[in-house]
From TrEMBL:
Domain (Rho-GAP) ranges: 1-136
InterPro entries: Rho-GAP (IPR050729), Rho_GTPase_activation_prot (IPR008936), RhoGAP_dom (IPR000198)
One CC-aspect GO term: cytoplasm
UniProt name for this protein: RHG12 protein
TM spans (from-to): none
Pfam families associated with the record: RhoGAP
PROSITE patterns: RHOGAP
Organism: Anhinga rufa (African darter)
Amino acid sequence: SDEKLDLNDSKWEDIHVITGALKMFFRELPEPLFTYNRFNDFVNAIKQEQRQRVHAVKDLIKQLPKPNQDTMQVLFRHLKRVVENGEKNRMTYQSVAIVFGPTLLKPEKETGNIAVHTVYQNQIVELILLELNSIFGR
């Protein structure tokens, strides 16, 4: 909403509140950040050989709407900083991917492959975090 928030207010001190709000924002979008029509393309990209994955994912991101690309770049740069502070927050590439994968990337209609989809969702997010500079540049 258009409500002005004071993030210095003590009610925002618990990082889980902020993280939960961020996840909720992305979960409640009418369409995921990685658009429905590209879900299978991203899954197929992550199934490729390691050397080809980064190039395939980068190309797919470039095909997304510009606002999605821009939001993705800001979000993933932030998540990378979270991982870089892993000694304090115990968040690894894999744990961030597990938390955000299913929120950012999902099929339009769930099929019986939920467990398989979850693995791919996590792998895609983890790859982008690991290869952030290759995918989005400096």
